[in-house]
Design brief:
This protein is α/β, with parallel strands linked by helices and 324 residues long. It is built from 16 helices and seven strands. It has helices spanning 2-5, 17-26, 48-52, 64-74, 99-106, 123-126, 141-151, 164-186, 191-211, 222-233, 238-247, 252-259, 264-279, 284-295, 299-307, 314-320, and strands at 10-13, 42-45, 57-60, 83-86, 114-118, 132-137, 156-161. Helix 5 links the parallel strand 4 and strand 5 (114-118). Helix 8 crosses helix 13 (264-279). The protein binds 1,4-dihydronicotinamide adenine dinucleotide (NAI) and 1,3-dihydroxyacetonephosphate. 1,3-dihydroxyacetonephosphate binds next to helix 8, helix 10 and helix 11. 1,4-dihydronicotinamide adenine dinucleotide binds next to helix 4. This is Glycerol-3-phosphate dehydrogenase [NAD(P)+]. Pfam families: NAD_Gly3P_dh_C, NAD_Gly3P_dh_N. Residues 163-304 form the Glycerol-3-phosphate dehydrogenase NAD-dependent C-terminal domain. It catalyses: sn-glycerol 3-phosphate + NAD(+) = dihydroxyacetone phosphate + NADH + H(+); sn-glycerol 3-phosphate + NADP(+) = dihydroxyacetone phosphate + NADPH + H(+).
């Protein structure tokens, strides 16, 4: 919709012919955006070669675990000069790779024309043209600027960025903290608890990010604190809602089924567990959440354990917290 608003002809590829037909005939996609009429200028197809014919910009917006297979299918049809931009917030679970690394592997001829789009941007609000700010990061400034000029408009303000690692790590890890925020709210804890989760969550996001090669300041930006705040506080967040349902005793399987959309924070919690071990970085909140989600730990006990950790200095722990 943002691209169509900017006057670009857009072709959406869907694996479902039925969805493509609904979009073309009724200008709706009711399963995902119930009361929305899509703007003119959007065509849909289930033919991936047709969708990519003569395109200048490819936006990859499937869930993280589906990116590799989708780009593998798309890659032979993507024109050489096209920009490849993704908006997925997660790591590939089986390899722990960032999504731009997956794109580089699956479409090596686009190296240098790959970018990530991230930031506080719930689709439900973007489609209402409610003011939204995001970042687009690429190793090549030229590519970030080109993606910016495709996407930027009066209600969707796009900043460029060069720290691909920081932007991807921030956008992924914030979902873990949002699950925790939903859980905390559901357990009846207050605003102090939520502020603590956001702030201490940001510290562990930045800690892992720095170990992976990110610039610390990136976490103070839109793809860090910006997306963290919106996901921990918005009624639109699937991650917050999943955490909230967990506090009411629903099982993880039940929740994922009920949601019917991706809850990236679940697989990201597993990935963060492995990454924190790989890099020797302490991530107390992610680690407690891992035990709640996958080892049946009582969430109240998890909160007690977080509150009962050894006495420490805020700044030291923010920067240096390590497993050793
Ligand atoms: N929904 C939002 O407001 C935002 C989502 N994101 C990120 O974008 C990514 C996608 O999120 P959503 O669109 O919300 O997820 P979703 O679960 O609502 O929908 C994803 C779309 O991908 C399709 N899909 C799933 N698996 C597929 C596969 N194997 N092959 C082809 N198509 C497949 C689904 O049919 C659906 O149309 C996630 O990484 C999410 O974190 C980023 C910013 C905002
Ligand atoms: O990333 C998002 C908003 O920026 C979407 O968050 P949820 O996946 O929790 O809905």
């Amino acid at each position: 919709a943002v691209l169509a608003d900017n006057g670009h002809p857009v072709t959406l590829w869907s694996r479902s012919r039925q969805t493509a037909e609904e979009i073309n005939q009724q200008k709706t996609n009711r399963r995902y955006l119930k009361d929305v009429t899509l703007p003119e200028g959007i065509d849909a197809t289930d033919d991936i070669a047709k969708a990519l014919d003569d395109t200048h910009l490819v936006l990859v917006v499937v869930p993280s675990q589906a990116v590799r297979e989708t780009v593998r299918k798309a890659s032979p049809h993507i024109p050489d000069q096209a920009l490849l931009v993704h908006a997925a917030k997660g790591f590939e679970r089986s390899t722990l790779k960032r999504i731009s690394e997956v794109l580089e592997e699956e479409s090596p001829s686009h190296q240098g024309r790959i970018a990530v789009l991230s930031g506080p941007s719930h689709a439900e609000e973007v489609i209402q043209r409610s003011p939204t700010t995001v970042v687009v990061a690429s190793q090549e400034e030229k590519s970030a600027k080109a993606a910016q000029s495709f996407l930027n408009n009066q209600s969707f303000r796009v900043y460029t960025h060069s720290d691909v690692v920081g932007v991807e790590v921030g956008g992924s890890l914030k979902n873990i903290i949002a699950l925790g925020a939903g859980l905390s709210d559901g357990l009846g804890f207050g605003d102090n608890a939520k502020a603590a989760l956001i702030t201490r969550g940001l510290a562990e996001m930045a800690r892992l990010g720095m170990a992976m090669g990110a610039e610390p300041i990136t976490f103070a930006g839109l793809s860090g604190v910006g997306d963290l705040v919106v996901t921990c506080t918005s009624r639109h967040s699937r991650n917050w809602r999943a955490g909230n349902l967990l506090s009411r005793g629903h099982s993880l399987d039940e929740i994922l089924q009920q949601m019917g959309m991706v809850v990236e924070g679940v697989k990201t919690t597993q990935a963060a567990h492995d990454l924190s071990n790989r890099y020797g970085v302490e991530m107390p909140i992610a680690s407690e959440l891992y035990e709640v989600l996958f080892e049946g730990k009582d969430p109240r006990q998890a909160v007690e354990d977080l509150m009962g950790r050894g006495e420490t200095n805020e700044l030291n722990e923010m920067i240096r917290g390590s497993l050793s």
